[in-house]
């Protein structure tokens, strides 16, 4: 019995290889259709997944936020940052000071370039159960070697790279900092240099002052609204604005774009299935004699179906593996061309794209079902 199964298995794979490579021209057409469908599917899915990952991690657009800004004047006291309580719904806070200055890379022949300098200071340490503080920027030694983050666009203009020393100037004031990181996120930070807050304050000549304080909230909507109301009462001279509507608008935009991409993927898969189905119809017409011979020598209907489904699955797997890899590469360049930032390859997209291509190939093999009803005697008499 085991020898018979081995022979049957060997015969199955032999017939399968012959069927696959019998008509290489038609094989190429099917692989081309499946590969193209897999490439487009992988490209769109990778852009969709990458956009969501960036929103959740880099951009933090899904997190509700609030902004504390000066109601009258251009700045607010930095001490306001230390007066914020660390309650259940306050996740973090960050103070920023913005100014326009000049920047140049030490040792480069480039002229000074006008840049936006955004000094940053965040809450880092907890000194009490309900309070977070950070060392005041006034206590930062001005002669200490400072590091800064440079946006991608600014780095390109200055010819700066990680490790370079940058000189920042504003009127007669000057500060130096070392490039610690080149930031490329596709948002406004790509056009800024972000040194510590103390550096920006010394350049602006406004010690102890900041432009805005940004809060990241958590908890329920009711808890967030209660905190915003509490802050408005605590700082009546400042403007406390929740940014939930702005964040929600961006979420809605992403959902619409995601829906369009998903619909496009569905249309691409349907068109791919139709193309493969048309090729499979011709294959079915060419395989009548083979199927008639297989059934005449005792091949069962189940075995015939299994043979052709295995053939379709192999074609789908080959087209999916090649097309999905090409699609992910395409998505990197497409993201850079459309959104200004290259999409990162997301590994989860590859197996999903390959699996979808295999499923499409199997479903597209539907015309081969007509081979099951072929009568061997009629084939041999040329009646079918």
Give a quick rundown of the structure.
With 384 residues, the chain is an alpha+beta fold.
In words, what does this structure look like?
There is one protein chain. The protein is α+β, with helices and mostly antiparallel strands. It folds into two domains: 2-58 and 251-380, no CATH class; 65-242, no CATH class. It is 52% helix and 21% strand. A six-stranded mixed barrel has the order 3-4-10-7-9-8. A two-stranded antiparallel sheet has the order 2-11. A hairpin with a 2-residue loop joins strand 8 and strand 9 (173-183). Helix 2 (24-59) runs antiparallel to helix 7, helix 2 crosses helix 9 and helix 7 packs parallel to helix 10 (349-364). The two termini are 36 Å apart. Mean pLDDT is 76; it is low at 58-62 and 124-136.
């Amino acid at each position: 019995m085991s020898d018979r199964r081995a022979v049957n298995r060997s015969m199955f794979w032999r017939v399968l290889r012959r069927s696959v490579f019998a008509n290489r021209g038609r094989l190429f057409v099917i692989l081309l259709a499946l590969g193209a469908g897999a490439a487009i599917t992988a490209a769109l899915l990778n852009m969709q997944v990458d956009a969501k990952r960036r929103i959740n991690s880099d951009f933090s657009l899904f997190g509700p936020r609030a902004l504390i800004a000066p109601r009258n004047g251009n700045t607010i006291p930095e001490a306001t940052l230390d007066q914020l309580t660390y309650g259940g719904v306050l996740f973090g806070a960050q103070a920023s000071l913005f100014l326009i200055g000049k920047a140049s890379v030490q040792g480069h022949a480039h002229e000074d370039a006008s840049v936006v300098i955004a000094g940053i200071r965040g809450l880092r340490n907890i000194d009490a159960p309900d309070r977070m503080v950070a060392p005041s920027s006034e206590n930062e030694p001005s002669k200490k070697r400072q590091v800064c983050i440079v946006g991608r666009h600014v780095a390109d203009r200055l010819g700066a790279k990680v490790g370079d020393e940058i000189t920042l100037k504003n009127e007669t004031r000057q500060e130096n900092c070392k490039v610690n990181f080149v930031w490329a996120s596709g948002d406004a930070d790509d056009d800024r240099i972000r040194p510590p807050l103390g550096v920006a304050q010394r350049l602006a000549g406004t010690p102890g002052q900041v432009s805005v304080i940004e809060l990241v909230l958590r908890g329920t909507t009711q808890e967030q609204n209660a905190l915003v109301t509490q802050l408005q009462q605590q700082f009546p001279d400042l403007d406390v604005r929740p940014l939930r509507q702005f964040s929600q608008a961006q979420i809605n935009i992403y959902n619409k774009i995601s829906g369009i991409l998903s619909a496009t993927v569905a249309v691409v898969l349907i068109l791919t299935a139709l193309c493969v189905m048309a090729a499979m119809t011709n294959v079915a017409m060419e395989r009548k004699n083979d199927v008639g011979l297989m059934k005449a020598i005792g091949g069962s209907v189940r075995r015939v179906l299994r043979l052709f489904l295995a053939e379709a699955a192999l074609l789908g797997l080959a087209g999916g593996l090649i097309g999905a890899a090409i699609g992910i590469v395409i998505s990197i360049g497409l993201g850079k061309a459309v959104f200004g930032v290259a999409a990162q390859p997301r590994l989860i997209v590859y197996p999903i794209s390959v699996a979808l291509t295999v499923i499409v190939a199997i479903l597209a093999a539907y015309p081969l079902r007509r081979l099951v009803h072929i009568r061997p005697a009629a084939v041999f008499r040329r009646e079918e």
